Amino acid sequence: MNPFVHKTLVVELQAGDSDRFPVLAHLSYDPADPFAVTVVFSHDGRVLARWQLDREMVADGLLGPVGVGDVRLSPQARGAGRELRMEFLGEPRPDGGRHHAVVYAWAETVGEFLAETRRMVAPGQEDAGVDDFLADVLAGR
Known about the structure:
Layout: E1 5-15, E2 21-29, E3 36-43, E4 46-54, H1 55-61, E5 71-78, E6 81-92, E7 98-106, H2 107-120, H3 130-138
Antiparallel strand pairs: 1-2, 1-7, 2-3, 3-4, 5-6, 6-7
């Protein structure tokens, strides 16, 4: 059995006032880091950005707006389907603003990915290894 969940999908990126254009989003989940989902955005073989997101935040973003910091997620209707709108704020720009991008993914596809992660590690069954870490710290290791 593969200990990871991977899914590659075509999403649409909108940076600044530009029109949307397609890029790849590579979603991955590793049970060794059970609370996180990693998303790598790429175009023409070049990595544009890499973000690590809270798995439950992504799930909550499929149902309603979440996030107040650098990442904000919300569902959005588009035609007959629904999208997950992912807004990312990046590094500061010289003009004092921040880099800003919005990515749109089909909500159903993201939901299918999350269902696969939940089959691997159910919510509430995550083991973050905190007890082992604290034991090592207290033992001076």
